[in-house]
Protein backbone atom coordinates (compact mmCIF):
# COMPACT_ATOMS: atom_id res chain seq x y z
CA UNK A 1 0.00 0.00 0.00
CA UNK A 2 1.10 3.60 -0.62
CA UNK A 3 0.72 6.78 1.40
CA UNK A 4 1.83 10.38 0.79
CA UNK A 5 4.40 11.94 3.16
CA UNK A 6 1.67 13.83 5.01
CA UNK A 7 -0.07 10.59 6.01
CA UNK A 8 1.74 10.22 9.30
CA UNK A 9 -0.11 8.90 12.33
CA UNK A 10 -0.27 12.45 13.69
CA UNK A 11 -1.62 13.84 10.41
CA UNK A 12 -4.26 11.12 10.22
CA UNK A 13 -5.29 11.80 13.81
CA UNK A 14 -5.60 15.51 13.05
CA UNK A 15 -7.82 14.87 10.01
CA UNK A 16 -9.87 12.33 11.92
CA UNK A 17 -10.48 14.68 14.82
CA UNK A 18 -11.53 17.44 12.43
CA UNK A 19 -14.00 15.13 10.70
CA UNK A 20 -15.25 13.81 14.04
CA UNK A 21 -16.15 17.34 15.11
CA UNK A 22 -18.29 17.65 11.99
CA UNK A 23 -19.92 14.32 12.76
CA UNK A 24 -20.67 15.16 16.36
CA UNK A 25 -21.76 18.71 15.70
CA UNK A 26 -21.99 21.33 18.44
CA UNK A 27 -21.99 20.02 21.99
CA UNK A 28 -21.79 16.41 20.84
CA UNK A 29 -24.96 16.52 18.72
CA UNK A 30 -24.57 14.44 15.56
CA UNK A 31 -25.31 16.22 12.30
CA UNK A 32 -25.28 15.29 8.60
CA UNK A 33 -22.18 15.94 6.54
CA UNK A 34 -23.30 18.38 3.84
CA UNK A 35 -20.97 18.25 0.87
CA UNK A 36 -21.29 20.65 -2.08
CA UNK A 37 -21.66 19.12 -5.53
CA UNK A 38 -20.62 20.60 -8.84
CA UNK A 39 -22.18 19.23 -12.02
CA UNK A 40 -20.35 19.67 -15.27
CA UNK A 41 -22.15 18.90 -18.51
CA UNK A 42 -20.38 17.88 -21.70
CA UNK A 43 -17.32 15.65 -21.39
CA UNK A 44 -14.70 15.15 -24.05
CA UNK A 45 -11.57 13.08 -23.46
CA UNK A 46 -10.80 12.97 -19.75
CA UNK A 47 -8.59 11.58 -17.05
CA UNK A 48 -10.59 10.00 -14.23
CA UNK A 49 -9.44 9.04 -10.74
CA UNK A 50 -11.01 5.86 -9.38
CA UNK A 51 -10.20 6.05 -5.70
CA UNK A 52 -11.43 4.91 -2.32
CA UNK A 53 -10.31 3.40 0.97
CA UNK A 54 -8.42 0.09 0.56
CA UNK A 55 -10.93 -2.74 0.32
CA UNK A 56 -13.69 -0.82 -1.47
CA UNK A 57 -13.10 -2.70 -4.74
CA UNK A 58 -10.99 -0.39 -6.90
CA UNK A 59 -8.72 -2.93 -8.61
CA UNK A 60 -11.44 -5.51 -9.31
CA UNK A 61 -13.73 -2.84 -10.76
CA UNK A 62 -10.87 -1.39 -12.80
CA UNK A 63 -10.27 -4.83 -14.33
CA UNK A 64 -13.93 -5.03 -15.34
CA UNK A 65 -13.91 -1.50 -16.77
CA UNK A 66 -10.75 -2.29 -18.75
CA UNK A 67 -12.66 -5.04 -20.60
CA UNK A 68 -15.07 -2.34 -21.81
CA UNK A 69 -12.25 -0.58 -23.64
CA UNK A 70 -11.08 1.98 -21.09
CA UNK A 71 -7.38 2.64 -20.58
CA UNK A 72 -6.56 1.83 -16.96
CA UNK A 73 -3.39 2.67 -15.03
CA UNK A 74 -2.73 1.51 -11.47
CA UNK A 75 -1.05 4.25 -9.40
CA UNK A 76 0.85 1.57 -7.45
CA UNK A 77 2.36 0.28 -10.70
CA UNK A 78 3.20 3.82 -11.82
CA UNK A 79 5.08 4.41 -8.55
CA UNK A 80 7.01 1.15 -8.82
CA UNK A 81 7.89 1.68 -12.48
CA UNK A 82 9.45 5.08 -11.75
CA UNK A 83 11.18 4.10 -8.52
CA UNK A 84 9.03 6.37 -6.35
CA UNK A 85 8.59 4.04 -3.38
CA UNK A 86 10.35 5.64 -0.41
CA UNK A 87 10.70 4.56 3.20
CA UNK A 88 8.38 1.80 4.30
CA UNK A 89 6.22 2.23 7.38
CA UNK A 90 6.40 -1.24 8.98
CA UNK A 91 3.46 -0.57 11.30
CA UNK A 92 1.19 0.30 8.39
CA UNK A 93 2.91 -1.94 5.83
CA UNK A 94 2.91 0.89 3.29
CA UNK A 95 5.44 2.90 1.32
CA UNK A 96 5.73 6.68 1.33
CA UNK A 97 5.07 8.26 -2.07
CA UNK A 98 5.23 11.94 -3.02
CA UNK A 99 2.13 12.92 -5.07
CA UNK A 100 4.16 15.58 -6.89
CA UNK A 101 6.61 12.91 -8.07
CA UNK A 102 3.68 10.76 -9.13
CA UNK A 103 2.32 13.67 -11.13
CA UNK A 104 5.67 14.16 -12.85
CA UNK A 105 5.86 10.43 -13.67
CA UNK A 106 2.36 10.59 -15.12
CA UNK A 107 3.45 13.46 -17.34
CA UNK A 108 6.55 11.61 -18.52
CA UNK A 109 4.37 8.71 -19.62
CA UNK A 110 2.02 11.07 -21.44
CA UNK A 111 -0.99 9.46 -19.79
CA UNK A 112 -3.75 12.03 -20.26
CA UNK A 113 -6.86 10.00 -20.98
CA UNK A 114 -8.25 7.01 -19.13
CA UNK A 115 -8.68 5.89 -15.54
CA UNK A 116 -6.12 6.19 -12.74
CA UNK A 117 -6.74 3.59 -10.05
CA UNK A 118 -5.60 3.77 -6.45
CA UNK A 119 -6.33 5.43 -3.12
CA UNK A 120 -3.94 8.27 -4.03
CA UNK A 121 -5.36 8.79 -7.54
CA UNK A 122 -7.52 11.73 -6.45
CA UNK A 123 -4.39 13.64 -5.40
CA UNK A 124 -3.26 13.86 -9.04
CA UNK A 125 -4.43 16.28 -11.73
CA UNK A 126 -7.60 14.71 -13.10
CA UNK A 127 -10.87 15.83 -14.68
CA UNK A 128 -13.20 13.76 -12.51
CA UNK A 129 -13.05 11.67 -9.34
CA UNK A 130 -15.11 8.57 -8.61
CA UNK A 131 -14.88 7.43 -4.99
CA UNK A 132 -15.81 3.84 -4.20
CA UNK A 133 -17.36 3.54 -0.74
CA UNK A 134 -18.20 0.65 1.59
CA UNK A 135 -20.09 0.59 4.86
CA UNK A 136 -17.44 0.52 7.61
CA UNK A 137 -18.65 -2.69 9.22
CA UNK A 138 -18.57 -4.52 5.88
CA UNK A 139 -15.20 -2.97 5.03
CA UNK A 140 -13.74 -4.32 8.27
CA UNK A 141 -14.78 -7.84 7.24
CA UNK A 142 -13.16 -7.41 3.82
CA UNK A 143 -9.89 -6.25 5.35
CA UNK A 144 -9.93 -9.03 7.94
CA UNK A 145 -10.12 -11.51 5.06
CA UNK A 146 -6.90 -9.97 3.73
CA UNK A 147 -5.22 -10.84 7.01
CA UNK A 148 -4.61 -7.22 7.99
CA UNK A 149 -3.72 -6.48 11.64
CA UNK A 150 -6.44 -4.99 13.82
CA UNK A 151 -4.79 -1.56 14.12
CA UNK A 152 -4.48 -1.18 10.35
CA UNK A 153 -8.08 -2.28 9.85
CA UNK A 154 -9.30 0.22 12.42
CA UNK A 155 -7.35 3.08 10.84
CA UNK A 156 -8.76 2.41 7.37
CA UNK A 157 -12.30 1.74 8.56
CA UNK A 158 -12.28 4.97 10.57
CA UNK A 159 -11.01 6.82 7.52
CA UNK A 160 -13.95 5.44 5.54
CA UNK A 161 -16.44 6.34 8.27
CA UNK A 162 -15.10 9.90 8.37
CA UNK A 163 -15.14 10.37 4.56
CA UNK A 164 -11.40 11.13 4.55
CA UNK A 165 -10.80 10.33 0.88
CA UNK A 166 -14.09 11.92 -0.19
CA UNK A 167 -13.19 15.12 1.66
CA UNK A 168 -9.77 15.21 0.00
CA UNK A 169 -11.35 14.61 -3.40
CA UNK A 170 -13.86 17.41 -2.87
CA UNK A 171 -10.95 19.77 -2.37
CA UNK A 172 -9.64 19.03 -5.87
CA UNK A 173 -12.11 21.40 -7.52
CA UNK A 174 -13.27 18.81 -10.09
CA UNK A 175 -16.60 16.93 -10.16
CA UNK A 176 -16.72 14.13 -7.60
CA UNK A 177 -19.05 11.13 -7.53
CA UNK A 178 -19.36 8.23 -5.12
CA UNK A 179 -20.61 4.65 -5.42
CA UNK A 180 -21.66 2.51 -2.46
CA UNK A 181 -20.17 -0.92 -3.20
CA UNK A 182 -21.38 -2.56 0.01
CA UNK A 183 -24.08 -4.73 -1.54
CA UNK A 184 -22.81 -4.74 -5.12
CA UNK A 185 -20.89 -7.37 -7.02
CA UNK A 186 -17.97 -6.59 -9.33
CA UNK A 187 -20.11 -6.28 -12.46
CA UNK A 188 -22.74 -4.14 -10.73
CA UNK A 189 -20.11 -1.76 -9.41
CA UNK A 190 -18.46 -1.60 -12.83
CA UNK A 191 -21.83 -0.77 -14.36
CA UNK A 192 -22.27 2.08 -11.87
CA UNK A 193 -18.83 3.48 -12.74
CA UNK A 194 -19.56 3.15 -16.46
CA UNK A 195 -22.89 4.92 -15.93
CA UNK A 196 -21.07 7.89 -14.38
CA UNK A 197 -18.61 7.93 -17.26
CA UNK A 198 -21.53 7.87 -19.67
CA UNK A 199 -23.15 10.92 -18.08
CA UNK A 200 -25.15 9.77 -15.03
CA UNK A 201 -24.73 12.46 -12.39
CA UNK A 202 -27.55 12.84 -9.86
CA UNK A 203 -27.74 9.20 -8.74
CA UNK A 204 -24.07 9.16 -7.73
CA UNK A 205 -23.68 12.76 -6.58
CA UNK A 206 -21.20 13.22 -3.72
CA UNK A 207 -22.93 13.61 -0.39
CA UNK A 208 -25.53 10.84 -0.76
CA UNK A 209 -23.57 8.44 1.44
CA UNK A 210 -23.24 9.06 5.16
CA UNK A 211 -21.47 6.65 7.53
CA UNK A 212 -21.26 9.23 10.35
CA UNK A 213 -23.32 7.10 12.76
CA UNK A 214 -20.60 4.42 12.59
CA UNK A 215 -17.70 6.83 13.03
CA UNK A 216 -17.97 7.00 16.81
CA UNK A 217 -17.78 3.23 17.06
CA UNK A 218 -14.39 3.13 15.35
CA UNK A 219 -12.87 6.24 16.95
Explain how this protein is built.
The protein is built from 9 helices and 8 strands. It has 219 residues and is α/β, with parallel strands linked by helices. Helix 5 runs antiparallel to helix 6 and helix 6 packs antiparallel against helix 9 (212-218). The longest helix is centred in the first third of the chain and has 16 residues, at 9-24.
What is the radius of gyration?
17 Å
Going by helix content, strand content and strand pairing, the class is alpha/beta
**Spans where pLDDT lies below 50 across 5 or more residues:** 6-13, 19-43
| Average of per-residue pLDDT values | 81
Number of helices: 9
How does the major sheet shape up? Answer: 5 strands, parallel
Q: Beta-strand percentage?
A: 5-15%
CATH architecture: 3-Layer(aba) Sandwich
CATH superfamily: P-loop containing nucleotide triphosphate hydrolases
What is the structure about, briefly put?
By secondary structure, this protein is an alpha/beta fold. It has helices at residues 9-24, 58-66, 75-81, 99-109, 136-145, 150-161, 164-170, 186-198, 212-218; strands at 2-3, 47-52, 72-74, 88-89, 94-96, 114-117, 128-133, 176-180.
Structure keywords:
single chain; 219 residues; alpha/beta; Rossmann fold; 9 helices; 42% helix
Helix-strand layout with pairing:
Blueprint: E1 2-3, H1 9-24, E2 47-52, H2 58-66, E3 72-74, H3 75-81, E4 88-89, E5 94-96, H4 99-109, E6 114-117, E7 128-133, H5 136-145, H6 150-161, H7 164-170, E8 176-180, H8 186-198, H9 212-218
Parallel strand pairs: 1-5, 2-6, 2-7, 3-6, 7-8
Antiparallel strand pairs: 4-5
Helix pairs in contact: 2-8, 5-6, 6-9
